[in-house]
Task: structure prediction
Amino acid sequence: MNYDNIEILFVEDSKDDANLTIRALKKSGFTNKLHHLTNGAEALDFFYCKGIYSSRNQNDLPKLILLDVKMPKVSGIQVLEKIKSDPHLRSIPVVMLTSSNEGPDIEKCFALGANSYIVKPVDSDNFFNAIREIGLYWMVLNKLPG
Result:
């Protein structure tokens, strides 16, 4: 598989949440270059071109990372910390997309450099609208350096 030109890197371990998010992004026209990963360790392999991503161009970075907080192997907070401490990766917007509404998680994510923290709405209509607005803002309206 070619892992170049990926615009949205989506890291989510819940199959149901992933399917709902991908469906909402697809309906909003944002899935042309979306890549879904299921845990934080896989995300780190993606960024540092390890394992199945060893042939990926390390300079070809996504425009947006959607990152769940609580995942197996390596948590979203650990992935966020690694991304925001790496000068090569830190300018990529990271949106924490999670069901965790815990104050300490929110505070830690912003302290580490998260660009946004979205608690997944329980209602499917609200969830769809939130995902559409995330895609519109970060992929269309937001301008990155460079």
Remarks:
- The first strand starts at residue 8 and ends at 11.
